[in-house]
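A quick aside before the break. I want you to see a complete sequence-to-structure record at least once, exactly as it would be stored in a machine-readable document. Don't worry about memorizing anything.
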Amino acid sequence: MIRIAIVEDETIFAKQLVEYLHRYEQEKQENFCITRYTDGDEIVENYKAQFDIILMDVQMRFMDGMSAAEEIRKKDSEVVIIFITNMRQYALRGYAVDALDYVVKPITYFAFSERLGRAIGRMKRRQENHVVVSIRGGVLRIDTGDIYYIESQGHTLIYHSSSGNHEGTGTMKEIEEILAPYDFCRGNKGYLINLAHVDSVRDGCAIVKGEELMLSRARKNSFMEALTNYWSNVR
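That is the input. The structure line, written in tokens, reads:
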């Protein structure tokens, strides 16, 4: 199931997009869940990274598509955005919010299906190594390769990543099970470490991005074994 949002204030164009999506479903044997919004402020309100693709009109009454995309990017760096616009010059601004492409009105099915195909391709490639985790205020979709390590502090999980630190909910056991296929290993009770970001081990600590993460006596041997196996497979 591919979750698609249409953000379009003109009913005629919204209906056309829905028709094109249903036609694409039949031709490509895809399955879409479609949600329509009539303005940028509607999708931004309570946004929780719930979509895979957003078809975003640029010119709308209350919040234009560019402003809406900027707000969405603060919460979701992975959703694929395609702008729908009357004027090509607006599309150039899309690079600032990592928009995949744009479609110029009036919309033809050929142009639309080409761009939708690209969007689905990007989405599926990203999903191969992504996980969705619970954070305060919503959810975060993150590439496992961008996570350096996860720290447990009481009932809070802190994701240390290339995009900064993100506080989430859940237990270390739950996230360990989710990340099991992605070369993560416990260094001690409080750290789940991405082996891809371990630079070295010294003085009983794993060195991850310059930080010293203490390895417990109980877990040191299993951690070193996992790290040695990982290094032998990638080097």
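Two observations worth writing down. The longest strand covers residues 147-153. The two ends are 37 Å apart (CA to CA). We'll return to this after the break.
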